[in-house]
Amino acid sequence: MTDISTSHGERMKRRVAILISGRGSNMAALIEGARGTDFPAEIVLVLSNKPDAAGLDRARRAGIATETIDSKPFGKDRAGFEAAMQTVLDANGIDLICLGGFMRLLTNAFVDRWSGRMLNIHPSLLPSFRGLDPHGQALRAGVKVSGATVHFVTPEMDAGPIVMQGVVPVCDGDTPDVLAARVLTVEHRIYPAALRLVASGAVRIEGGVCRITTTTCGDDTLIAPR
Ligand code: GAR
C-alpha cells in the first residue's frame, strides 16, 4: 500500500467500505472501533447486496453512508454485479474493503483488483473449517478450541494471508448456535484490531503470510477443557 500523507505530514485515514449481506454485527464493531481520532481508517460506506439487510439500518443510525446494489437481478452475471459495485467504490474513493458476512462469491478479477486491500472475517481458526457451517464442522471434529480469523481475500475461498486470529473454548453440549455466539464476541474484538494494523501499514504480505511490524507475541494460553 502506498503511503498517503497530508501537506502537514500527517497520515491520512484509509477510506474503508464494508460489504454486508445481513445483520452487520461485525460492521457495527468496525464502525465503533474506527471512531477514535487516532484510528488509521474511517468507515465511509456500507454497501449491501441485499436491500433488506438489517445492517443497512444500523449503519444509517450510526451516520454512515449506505448503498444497495441488489445482486438478485444480476443472476449469474457476477462480473456485471461487481462492475456496479466497483463504480460505487470508485465514486467513494475507497482504499480498503472489509467483508462482513458478505454472502456472495467474488470473481478472481475483482479479488485480484483488490489484492492486499480486501479483508474478510471467517468464524473458524483457518485453515480449519473453511466454507459453510464452520461451527458444525468444528463440533463434528470434536476440537476443544475454535475462534475467528481475519485474513486478506484471495481467489481461493477462506485461504488468504492471515492477519489476526482469536480463540475461544468449545464446550461439551455446545450447539452450532451457542458456539457461533461465543465466536462472534471474539470476531468483534479482532476485526477492528486487524483493520487498525492493516490501515496503519504495519502488515506486509511475504510469501503468502502476513508479517506484522508493530505487535509483540503475547504469552496467553487457553487450555480447554480446564
Ligand atoms: C459472521 O460470523 C462472519 O464471521 C460470518 O458471517 C457472520 C456475519 O455476521 N462470515 C462468514 O461465514 C464468511 N465465510 P454479521 O453480519 O453479524 O457480521
Question: Can you tell me about this structure?
Answer:
The chain is 31% helix and 23% strand. It has 226 residues and is α/β, with parallel strands linked by helices. The model has no long low-confidence stretch (mean pLDDT 95). Glycinamide ribonucleotide binds next to α1, β5 and α6.
Q: Can you tag this structure with a few keywords?
A:
Rossmann fold; 226 residues; binds glycinamide ribonucleotide; two-stranded antiparallel sheet
Give the helices and strands, then pairings:
Elements: E1 14-20, H1 25-33, E2 41-48, H2 54-61, E3 65-68, H3 78-91, E4 96-100, H4 108-113, E5 118-122, H5 134-141, E6 145-152, E7 162-169, H6 176-199, E8 203-206, E9 209-212
Parallel strand pairs: 1-2, 1-4, 2-3, 4-5
Antiparallel strand pairs: 5-6, 6-7, 8-9
The protein binds glycinamide ribonucleotide.
- Give the integer mean of the pLDDT values: 95
Indicate how many domains the architecture comprises.
Answer: 2
Tell me the fraction of residues in β-strands, as a range.
15-25%
Give the class from helix and strand content and strand pairing. Answer: alpha/beta
Please report the first level of CATH classification, the CATH class of the largest domain: Alpha Beta
Q: Determine the CATH topology of the largest domain.
A: Rossmann fold
Order of helices and strands, N to C?
EHEHEHEHEHEEHEE
The tally of beta strands, per DSSP, is 9
Query: How do the strands line up in the largest sheet?
Result: 3-2-1-4-5-6-7
